[in-house]
Amino acid sequence: MNYQKRAIAAGVAMAAAVVALPAQAQSAFQPAPSARGLDDIQVTANRLPQSQTDVLASTTIIDRDEIERSQADSVIDLLQNRAGIELTQSGSPGTTSSLFLRGSESDHTLVLVDGVRINSATSGGASLEFLPVEAIERIEIVRGPRAAAYGADAIGGVIQIFTRRGGQGTHAALDLRVGEDSTTKQNLFVTTGDTDTRLNASLFHRDGDGFNATTADNSGERDGFERSGGQIGLSHRFTDRVSGDFQALRQNIDTEYDNCYPVNALTPVNDCRTKGYLQTFGGKVDVALDSDWQMAITAGHFDEQREERYAGDRYSTTESHRNELGIQHNFTRDNGVDTLGVDYRQESLDFDSASPYAGDYAKDSRENYGIYGMMQRQYGAHELTGALRYDDDSRFGDETTGSVGYAYHLTTYQRLGASFGTAFKAPNLIDLYGPYGNNPDLDAETSKNVELFWSFDRDAWSARVSAFENRIDDLIAYDSVTYLPYNVDEARIRGVELSGGWQGERLSTRLAITFQDPEVRQWSDDYAGVEKGDRLLQRANRFARWDVDYRILPVWSVGTTLSASGDRTAYGGDTTAGYGVVDLRTAWQVTSEVELSAKLENAFDKDYALVDGYNTQDRYVEAGVKLSF
Q1: For residue 447, which of 466, 479, 469, 429 has the smallest C-alpha distance?
Q2: 236-244: long-range contacts at Cβ-Cβ below 8 A with a sequence spacing of 24 or more?
Q3: Which pLDDT score is estimated for 26?
Q4: pLDDT at 415 over 90
Q5: Maximum Cα interatomic distance, the chain, rounded to a whole number of Å
Q6: What does the pLDDT read at residue 23?
Q7: In this protein, which residues make up the domain named TonB-dependent receptor-like beta-barrel (predicted)?
């Protein structure tokens, strides 16, 4: 294949350029170490373990302690209104969700589970509603383009979810919870291991009656849900130089929703149902080839199935499949790290529909080869990063992306920096070859992003101010008459993020405030009602989240989360009103083996919407017990 040859040639040239970069002697000036220890280490931004204080990108870590403390039911609850992040969901738990990171489109954020992409091969978005919090060890959020590291889809940023890990000794925990709307939850986590081998497994189940999905439905019916699954992890150190790990996750889902059209129906019905699953398998082998040369070999597999049933009859079944392979080399220098890597991705889909209007996918698979290089250097008070990547896609062609960043240490604890990066989004298979209308000549959506930041990190304190502008060209729109996709639109997103927190022995708090202007710069005349200067749909100009937890006694803690958002422009020109929601929680460690907890969501019973015309959870009470062995 010609595109394979071009990818290899570009990779060789890039490898030579990166290796030729000089390595200077490291200065005595060093940033202050973080007081947060291992919880401060992240791997997503540059695909290798680093302290957040050594990363120029804007990042957030949500660790297992915070997940358990928050008593969150879903990944959507964990991410909502954090710096740069907005989410929508069309009804009860398990219904379709969309994520908008820094005002970009819902398919402009790359989502990984243990390094494996879970973005759909059809729509390009990730089914966050399919992911169980019970199986998650930590979540890493990286804001801003990361295409030079990961290739397509990372225009807004990258979110990586790591599943649970094992530890030394044998331990188990059983979580049992009950809530309103006949909600029940069960979760069992078991781990065993020693210094060389560790094994863990999780089983989880949740179901409930839910609530009525749409505001137009006056029948009083509820849209219920059920999800269940399991997770397993295994790691082993073969020698002092070689180690490996394997992770697998499976989540089944069955959820009801409203407003679908059965075959040949002229009006919508509220008897709609999605059944399906998401599963990932990922493995990695780390090899120390030398004291300053580390190699990682990775492999992953992803499957997602969605079966839609309308009025009891099967309407369609869509399956996404993806295989991935990668080799990465990290070279440690006296004052930094060089990285060289190559990866391969093959994805395909299966589609079947009872609709007389649906055809077949003209082409239902694609391949992508990527070669990348990254460098990081510190020269006294100066930090410099750079990355370059070449991708060749078998369906739409090749793309080269890059990034560069610089930071200056004003003091031991403060940095001032700037970065520039390019990114792209490969056209989705449904747009290129889909059954309802397609355009195989689509170009990739591309972006250019500039960011300025100031950060502070000292002991328990952390703060960051980031100002960014992201210009996205060749956005894919749809003709209002033919419904065919085409490249025409442009958007400019400007914003400022304020984030920070305190992590003390008793008090922990984290605040994030986002101001943004996601603006249409050019839009097709065929798309009625959209003009230059209009706000991008379903995005707010401002939103915030404030989490506070306090340990009153060594065995008793309380906490609250305040989420707020301004209004958003809805489809059809309507406006979805802003909102403010308060959640409360408490936990009591009765003994070392028994913990009781409870939460009150939407404490003031706020009537609000994330998507115009769809309901959200009203006041909700839940309690549970955790038994540790």
Answers
A1: 469
A2: 236/196, 236/197, 236/198, 237/195, 237/196, 237/197, 240/288, 241/287, 241/288, 241/289, 242/285, 242/286, 242/287, 242/288, 243/285, 243/286, 244/283, 244/284, 244/285, 244/286
A3: 35
A4: yes
A5: 73
A6: 37
A7: 181-602
Residue with tokens 């490249």: 487
d(CA 121, CA 306): 12
410: helix, coil or strand? Answer: coil
Under the banding of pLDDT at 50, 70 and 90, the label for residue 304 is very high
**Strand boundaries in 36-146, DSSP class E:** 41-42, 50-51, 58-63, 85-89, 97-101, 109-113, 116-117, 136-143
Name the pLDDT band for 5 (thresholds 50, 70, 90).
Answer: very low
- Joined together, the tokens standing for residue 609 give 């919407």
Q: What is the CA radius of gyration of the chain?
A: 24
Residue 184: Cβ-neighbour burial (10 angstroms; 0-12, 13-18, 19+): middle
The two tokens of residue 179 are 């809530």
pLDDT (mean) for 392-398: 89
| Digit-coded pLDDT (tens) for 427-452 | 989 999 988 888 998 889 999 999 99
Using CA atoms, how far apart are residues 26 and 48, in angstroms rounded to an integer? 20
Burial 594-604 (b: 16+ CB within 10 A, else e): ebebbbbbbee
Element (H, E) at 79: helix 75-79
Q: Residues for the chain: how many in total?
A: 629
The 10 Å Cβ neighbour count of residue 504 is 12
Burial 153-169 (b: 16+ CB within 10 A, else e): bbbbbbbbbbbbbbeee
DSSP state of 49: -
What's the CA gap between 293 and 395, in Å, rounded? 35
Can you tell me whether residue 11 is helix, strand or coil?
A: helix
What is the reported pLDDT for 203? 98
Q: How far apart are CA 494 and CA 472, in angstroms?
A: 11
- Looking at the DSSP bridge assignments, the partners of residue 123 are none
Alpha-carbon span 510 to 186, nearest angstrom: 29
HEC secondary structure over 376-397:
EEEECCEEEEEEEEEEEECCCE
pLDDT computed for residue 115 by the predictor = 96
Least confident of 12-26, 141-155, 290-304: 12-26
Segment (H or E) for 14: helix 2-19
Of the CA atoms within 13 Å of residue 274, those in its CB half-sphere come to 28
Tokens of 547: 């989490």
Angle (CA) 566-540-66 rounded to 5° is: 80
C-beta neighbour count of 199 within 10 angstroms: 16
Q: Assign 492 to helix, strand or coil.
A: strand
Q: Which two tokens stand for residue 90?
A: 């069309």
pLDDT tens figures, 571-618:
777 899 999 999 999 999 999 999 999 999 999 999 999 999 999 999
Torsion of Cα atoms, 18 then 24 then 30 then 33, to 10° = 40
CB atoms within 10 A of CB 367: 17
Q: Is 13 exposed, middle or buried (0-12, 13-18, 19+ CB in 10 A)?
A: middle
Burial call 511-520: b when 16+ CB within 10 Å, e when fewer: bbbbbbbbbb
Q: Are strands 109-113 and 579-589 parallel, antiparallel or unpaired?
A: unpaired
